[in-house]
Design the sequence.
């Protein structure tokens, strides 16, 4: 029997597979299809201080081997998440969950993190400083080491839970941003969020997305994500959650060899609702195929 | 919702760029006319949402128009080939509201879901009237199907080459339905809704990421709050739509 267990910031996971924020809602749609307790954990929809509808539609476009989204952080706000979504989730998911936090100001990040700090079911807080869809802030926190470090330090003051900073790939030097987050007290890093892109409808000569631009994800971004995980692994000591285009157990192994301690799966859930269940089921077989006994042994194995 | 591999039983052209495909496989997740499938097409990342036209114990009929690469690829598929399908998506039409003499309005490829709805309404002893709108004579399909179900059918074409010249609303004159059901382009839905004093249900389209409620890609604002077209829709009631 192979061992798929990993440890993420001090909390054990049965396996490293984690549905990525924004692609798994609050879990119930998937709980109708399979027992979501098979997951390592999952990261729920990015939550802000107040309810948001997000961007106008269309906010989805197809790309070769991927998709663009410009959802714009639609969520019911942190109070409704805590009072309505999490109690409902507790009925179908019995492991610590990852809270994904977004904001438009330092105060907002702090406020939302403080609220999730008080929720027992929340195991980790994943702070998204990278959502490329929102005008007026979301982008800027993740694009300079100073701003990323400042947000990290500010939210660090209000929570003892493992704090994971989720980084944007839309930067010239992701390594310096990763190091700034580590220095400011981050317990882990998630990378990558979506890559900014666009599509144009030739017939009407306008962008397909109402927002103009959107975030690219899916298999198209896998090599870029893998490269960033590899580079950041060389520069930091804290664990990395690797994501971007992961859609098979092989991709999980590749991400872990690059340096990921765990792996998030995003867009794959949207086209195959059973993607995470299938990846988890395939993992032991793939491990055996490559002679891997203990999955955690291969973290960073390609360095 | 179920995910399954469905076998194409037939795939034939029924009007200009419009195909009717019969799929055989699990139909257990279908609960109401107006629901849709989300179809994986080899070589394309996102699935294609297509309404269920009608279904029985082991087949599902869909009617689709070739508008881009995905639907073009579908049109070239032959009987015996298989498709990976998510079936039973969306709420569908609520038939309990129909009253005795409902009006069913279909615009272009908004027509297919009306077929399954019409057949079920007739089976319940209702007397539906069907109004269909198309661009031109070559685009018209399913007129005879509705008529053979016993429904009164009126057809409008925008260029006047067949039936009443104009839009569906031009062909609706004199009809005072107990209730209405409509599917088609948004300007048509709005015109139908405005023209009729009766209450009704309208089926909407939106670009979708997942089709089953997970990604928030297809949200719209209604008088009763935010709804996902794929999960809380595609059918909305007249009273909740914000135009
Ligand atoms: C709930 C619902 C039911 C539908 N039912 C039918 C039906 O019964 N018959 C039919 O002919 N068409 C139907 N459509 C529209 C159909 O989904 C599109 O025509 C189809 O996805 C186009 O795919 P393509 O690859 O040919 O076009 P492309 O333009 O190449 O597609 C590119 C991307 O845009 C998406 N897209 C393009 N047009 C639409 C659209 N109108 N709505 C949603 N997504 C779109 C595609 O799914 C794909 O992801 C329905 C749409 C929805 C949302
Ligand atoms: C529809 C959609 C919504 C997303 N929403 C969020 C979000 O709310 N917060 C966040 O941190 N990331 C969000 N993401 C980014 C994903 O969590 C993930 O980082 C990215 O999609 C790369 O992984 P993938 O290629 O496997 O999808 C979203 C992605 C998609 C496709
Ligand atoms: S398409 Fe994903 S929520 Fe509707």
Sequence:
């Amino acid at each position: 029997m192979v061992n798929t267990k990993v440890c993420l910031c001090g909390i054990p996971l049965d396996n490293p597979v984690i549905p990525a924020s924004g692609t798994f809602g609050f879990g119930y749609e998937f709980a109708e299809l399979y027992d979501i307790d098979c997951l390592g954990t999952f990261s729920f929809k990015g939550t802000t201080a107040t309810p948001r509808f997000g961007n106008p539609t269309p906010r989805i476009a197809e790309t070769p081997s991927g998709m663009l989204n410009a959802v714009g952080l639609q969520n019911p706000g942190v109070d409704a998440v805590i009072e309505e979504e999490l109690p409902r989730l507790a009925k179908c998911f019995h492991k610590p969950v990852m809270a994904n936090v977004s904001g438009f100001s330092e105060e907002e990040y702090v406020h939302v993190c403080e609220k999730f700090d008080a929720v027992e079911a929340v195991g980790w807080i994943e702070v998204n400083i990278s959502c490329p869809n929102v005008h007026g802030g979301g982008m800027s926190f993740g694009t300079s080491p100073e701003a990323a470090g400042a947000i990290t330090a500010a939210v660090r003051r209000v929570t003892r839970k493992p704090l994971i900073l989720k980084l944007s790939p839309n930067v010239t030097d992701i390594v310096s941003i990763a190091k700034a987050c580590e220095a400011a007290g981050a317990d882990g890093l998630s990378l990558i969020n979506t890559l900014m892109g666009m599509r144009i409808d030739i017939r009407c000569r306008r962008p397909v997305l109402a927002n103009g631009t959107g975030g690219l994800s899916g298999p198209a971004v896998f090599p870029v994500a893998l490269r960033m995980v590899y580079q950041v692994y060389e520069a930091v000591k804290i664990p990395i959650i690797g994501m971007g285009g992961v859609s098979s157990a092989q991709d999980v192994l590749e991400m872990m060899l690059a340096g990921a301690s765990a792996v998030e799966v995003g867009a794959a859930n949207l086209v195959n609702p059973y993607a995470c269940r299938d990846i988890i089921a395939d993992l032991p077989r793939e491990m055996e195929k490559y002679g891997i006994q203990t999955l955690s042994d291969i973290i960073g194995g390609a360095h | 919702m179920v995910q399954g591999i469905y076998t194409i039983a037939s795939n034939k052209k029924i009007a200009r760029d419009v195909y009717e495909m019969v799929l055989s496989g699990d139909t257990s997740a279908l609960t109401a006319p107006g629901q849709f499938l989300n179809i994986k097409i080899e070589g394309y990342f996102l699935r294609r949402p297509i309404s269920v036209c009608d279904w029985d114990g082991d087949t599902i009929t869909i009617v689709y128009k070739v508008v881009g690469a995905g639907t073009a690829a579908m049109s070239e598929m032959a009987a015996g080939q298989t498709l990976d399908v998510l079936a039973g998506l969306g709420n569908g039409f609520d038939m309990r509201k129909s009253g005795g003499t409902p009006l069913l309005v279909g615009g272009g490829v908004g027509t297919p879901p009306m077929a399954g709805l019409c057949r079920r309404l007739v089976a319940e002893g209702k007397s539906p009237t069907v109004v269909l709108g198309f661009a031109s004579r070559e685009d018209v399909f399913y007129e005879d199907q509705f008529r053979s179900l016993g429904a009164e059918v009126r057809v409008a074409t925008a260029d006047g080459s067949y039936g009443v010249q104009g839009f569906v609303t031009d062909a609706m004159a004199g009809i005072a339905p107990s209730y209405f059901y409509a599917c088609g382009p948004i300007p048509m839905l709005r015109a139908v809704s405005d023209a009729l004093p009766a209450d009704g249900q309208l089926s909407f389209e939106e670009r979708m990421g997942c089709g089953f409620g997970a990604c928030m890609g297809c949200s719209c604002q209604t008088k009763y709050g935010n709804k996902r077209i794929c999960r809380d829709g595609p059918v909305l009631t007249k009273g909740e739509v914000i135009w």
Remarks:
- Chain A touches chain B through 35 residues (CB under 8 Å).
- The longest helix of chain A spans residues 275-289.
